[in-house]
Amino acid sequence: MVPTNKSLREPASRGKIWVKPTDQMDLWLDSQGYYRKHTAKDGSCLYRAISEQIFLAQAFHLDVRRQCAEFAHRHPELLSSVSHCSVDEYVDQMKHPHELGGKVELQVMSLMFRKDFL
């Protein structure tokens, strides 16, 4: 959720016309002064959301994913809850652009960026 800012809703600032939301969640958020920032529905949605919050753009999601995998590799104790494969195998999976991120990756990025995402 992002606070509504009238200047962000102006056609000139975004290059396109703002359309009033019709989805129930979007309507409720709008009534509270917020709007939902949409992301691509792919395996990188978590990394896109983190990229948006850290760098103000989803475009860096592949860099965020790579940094997350590298940080996890340097700190294998963060992957102690992963029991179905080795740390190296898990980190290799994390690097794949279509692999979904979850609780483990969120915890890794929270420590990596020193932010509380939860």
TrEMBL record:
One molecular function GO term is: cysteine-type deubiquitinase activity
Picking any one GO biological process from the record gives:
protein deubiquitination
Q: Which SUPFAM superfamilies match?
A: Cysteine proteinases
InterPro entries according to UniProt: OTU_dom (IPR003323), OTU_OTU (IPR049769), Papain-like_cys_pep_sf (IPR038765), Peptidase_C85-like (IPR050704)
Domain (OTU) ranges: 34-118
Tell me the domain of life: Eukaryota
Identify the Gene3D superfamilies for this entry. 3.90.70.80
Name the record gives this protein: OTU domain-containing protein
Originating species: Graphocephala atropunctata
